[in-house]
Design a protein that fits this description.
This protein has 121 residues and is an alpha+beta fold. The chain has one domain. 37% of the residues lie in helices and 17% in strands. It is built from four helices and five strands, in the order H-H-E-H-E-H-E-E-E. The strands form two sheets. The chain has a three-stranded mixed beta sheet, with helices on one face. The protein has a two-stranded antiparallel ribbon with strand order 3-4. Strand 1, helix 3 and strand 2 form a beta-alpha-beta unit. The protein is globular, with a radius of gyration of 15 Å.
Length: 121
Amino acid sequence: MSGLKFSEEAARKLERLHLTKDVVAQRSETMKQLALSQGERVLDVGCGPGFLCESMADIVGRYGAVIGIDISDDLIELCRRRSGQRCSGRQRRRRRPLGGRGKTGRRHRRSFNSPGSQRDV
């Protein structure tokens, strides 16, 4: 399985969608509901272009960590180009069985701040 593929144009459209007023408001409400604190460790599954990860990283600070996972290499690359050092661009691919049917899945990781082995959220 090679993950979800986006053309450059489709990835940019998704990035622009994540910057619209309603999605920004939704992200703000999510942050409010999470009520994160400095030093916490967070795992964001299906992080897309990484905007929520960036917002969470601002709150948890340098002693916390945010790990974003997404199936799309293209969205990981988009975040890496946009965020520079904030998005470490580390990718870890691990094949593992899904649902006992012999299928395999890939997991992609991008790390904000210092990575930890445990997550608070």
